[in-house]
Amino acid sequence: MKNFKFKIRGNTYEVNVHNFEDETIDVEVNGTLYKVDVEREIKTSKTPKLVRPSVVNTGNADKARTNKPDDRKGAGNIKAPLPGTILEMKVKKGDPVKVGDTLLIMEAMKMENNIKSDKEGIIEEVLVAVNDSVLEGDCLVRVGSN
What we know:
This protein has 146 residues and is mostly beta strands. The protein has two domains: 2-37, no CATH class; 77-144, CATH 2.40.50.100. The chain has one helix and twelve strands; from the N terminus they run ββββαββββββββ. The chain has one helix at 60-66, and strands at residues 2-8, 11-21, 24-29, 32-37, 77-79, 84-89, 96-97, 102-108, 111-116, 121-126, 133-134, 139-144. The strands form three sheets. The protein has a four-stranded antiparallel beta sheet with strand order 1-2-3-4, with no helix packed on it. Strands 5-12-10-7 form a four-stranded antiparallel beta sheet, with no helix packed on it. The protein has a four-stranded antiparallel beta sheet with strand order 9-8-6-11, with no helix packed on it. The protein is rod-shaped. The model is unreliable at 64-75 (pLDDT under 50).
């Protein structure tokens, strides 16, 4: 049961709602019981309906599927995976490297990270030195073919 006080044109009314079923409410106003029929408005939603455009196949999906996770990355460049500082160099110009060899150690986010080669070849150029700060995507080392 809910109790309300209404003031209409200076007159105070004490209203008690006893029962609310379907479209009928039992209401007591200043001690007199009434059955009131309620008309409900159908409220429209204020949330807009999301309509997505249909997907058009451009044929690029087939090309994307041909790349395998073990495909070699880059064109001979080893890049920084995240911003950091170079702590130690493990290779120099002219050194041969294989896939998985550690090229340098880099500190990033207070952790030491081994930067490894993802290609086989000979180091053509070392572009960083110890204590250098690098940004994500900076080229660290260039690896050439044998």
